[in-house]
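Recall that a protein's primary structure is simply its ordered list of amino acids. Everything else, from secondary elements to tertiary packing, is in principle encoded there. The following example makes that idea concrete.
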Amino acid sequence: MNRAEVVGINLLKREAKKPVARRIRERRPGERRPFSLGRDKAVIGILFLVFLLGFGGYYLKLDRTIRAKEKVLAKKKAELKKLERVYVRIRILEARKQELQRMVKVIETLSSGRDSVVKFFEKLEGALPENSWLSSFRLKGKEVQLVGYSLEDNGVADLMENLSHINEVSHCKLKYIKEVGLAGIRVKQFALMTFLR
């Protein structure tokens, strides 16, 4: 083609130009269609939007679940604080209860011991032989130390024999016996340890 023809072709009206027919090939069964960027972009975009919506929905559901669990956890922590206060009160009350029980045991011991001590001293008066008397006594728990004097030699032996017949006395032991002068008279001074039941 020469130059004049090319210029002439370009100057022709659009309708005069021959349309170039595109050849559309029919697909055969089982054949994949060729890659089309326009359609695939739309499908990929839609899939991406569906993925974003699904992920957003999952995130919102998870966020709601977490917030609900946090509320439950806050309630449980508040309950735990209340129960800790109650637990502390209970421990204080238990300590007081144990202290009171200990005091009750001491009082019971003292009262039961007092009963036997009182009965012992009531019966002690009848157990003293003639011409014997007590100058002092000391009570320590279930032990009673008796210090006294006797004008007769066998007065201490008689006293020990009489004490052994008192129900509240478990046994009696002689600590010492010695002869002393009292107001110009020779007497026997003695000390006995008496153990109560």
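The longest strand covers residues 169-182. The mean pLDDT is 81.
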